[in-house]
Amino acid sequence: MNAADRQLERRQDQFHTWGPYGLLGVGTLLAVTTSDLTGGTAAWCTAGALVAAALVLQVWHGPRRGRRVPSRRGTVYYALRWAIAFALTWLNPFFAFYAVAGYFDADEVIPGTRRQRLGLVATSVMVAGSQSGGMPIRGATQWAVFAGLLVANNVLLMMGTRIAQQEEQRSRDRAVTITELERTNTALQQALDENAALHAQLLLQAREAGVADERRRLAAEIHDTIAQGLTGIIAQLQVVANTPDPATAREHLGRASDLARQSLGEARRSVHNLAPVALEHDGLPEALHKTVAEWGRRTGVRSEFTLTGTAEHLHGEVSATLLRIAQEALSNASRHACAARLGVTLSFMGDEVTLDVRDDGRGFDPVAVPVRTGGGGFGLDGMRARAERIAGSLTVESEPGQGTAVSARVPLVRHE
Q1: For residues 270 and 100, which has the higher predicted lDDT (pLDDT)?
Q2: Distance between CA 285 and CA 305 in Å, rounded?
Q3: Which of 5, 35, 278, 301 is deepest in the core (most CB within 10 A)?
Q4: Exposure pattern of 75-91 as b/e (b: 16+ CB <10 Å)?
Q5: How far is CA 167 from CA 69, 156, 377, in A?
């Protein structure tokens, strides 16, 4: 119960406690002022005794502290008050003011709806009698007026009772609604607290996933740069170690030196998540062309690069991903394929870009590829992970003795 409800309850308690005293006082004052008591001294004595009895009855009934519960004691109080008010109104119609108190508390002191209505009708008899000129009723005209006023009073009483019941029902409905709202608010607050905890948990998981993804990215970058560069350097140095020709040795030493410089630059840029060195000054088609040509010179395999469609300036992440996939595919071909020819095709097809790497090497069974171990390279798993990272896909077609075709398909995201 809020402050306004408590204030209203206090005012109702005050009205029900002191209202009958006030109405009795008004009626007594008006009766004395008009001096319309017939019967002389006996009538005044009777009226005084009845007023005293009314005061004693009110004191016996006691003050109201919260809404009363209808009871037999309340019924007795109502009946005695009605009898005293009837006798006073018989003596003087102004005492009907005291009788009006019966309109206000019938539902609190009398149990049962029918008994409450009966009490209200009995009260309206006194009020109508007073309004029609006082009791006893004399003559047909006064009886007609009395009957009309009695009907009017009861109609008004029924309307007032109906309105009061509706208002009380609305109050109960509001109380129920407020209770439901409080329960809903409590549940909502609990849900918000749970969501906050879940959000914090998801942030932690996302942070951990981001750390893991960054580790995988750096591992893949190092594998694609330093590892491949070192592999090329080792191959060039092996040629130097096995050749007696100084010119050939110098050529391969130069290549090894170039690979070392490129690998160093790639390592630095990988740590900072920058684009590969080959993309620093060139677009993806030019970078792929140079990469394929350099790989062909280094391995001695006849290699070709083909561009189809209209080349567009791709987003840096897309270009880097496709170049890394091509580098990994070339590295796999040099280690495993023993191919005589290799072709790389970059195709711009509307909203997609595809990269195809095909060789005529010895091929393999994709189903029988062993699970990658901690000491091995990233291979097909790494290429597939790179493509899927930018919402792409990678497919591998190969058969023993029939060569290998690696195809990466990614969305075409233009450079902004």
Answers
A1: 100
A2: 9
A3: 278
A4: bebbebbbebbbbbbbb
A5: 19, 16, 81
Distance, in Å, from the CA atom of 205 to the CA atom of 194, rounded to the nearest integer, reads: 16
Amino acid at 278: A
The vertex-175 CA angle with 172 and 177, nearest 5°, equals 110
100: phi then psi, degrees, rounded to nearest 5: -60, -25
For residue 408, report the phi and psi dihedrals to the nearest 5 degrees: -110, 130
Q: Three-state SS for 283?
A: coil
Name the amino acid, one letter, at 262. Answer: Q
Give one word for 294, left, alpha or beta, with left for phi > 0 and alpha for psi -120 to 50: alpha
DSSP summary character for residue 378: -
CA distance 131 to 95: 11
One-letter amino acid at 131 equals: Q
Return the amino acid letter for 296.
G
Output the pLDDT for position 37: 52
Query: Which CB contacts under 8 angstroms, 24+ apart, belong to 66-73?
Result: 66/9, 66/13, 67/12, 67/108, 68/16, 68/105, 68/108, 68/109, 69/108, 70/107, 70/108, 70/109, 70/110, 70/111, 70/112, 71/109, 71/111, 72/111
CA distances to 95, 121, 138, 390, 411 from 128, rounded to whole Å, are: 12, 10, 14, 92, 93
pLDDT at 374: 42
Residue 356 backbone phi and psi in degrees, to 5: -120, 130
Q: What is the DSSP string of 173-198?
A: HHHHHHHHHHHHHHHHHHHHHHHHHH
pLDDT at position 149 over 50:
yes
Tens digits of per-residue pLDDT, 86-109? 999 998 899 999 999 988 888 888
pLDDT at 232 over 90: no
For the beta carbon of residue 147, count every other beta carbon within 10 angstroms: 13
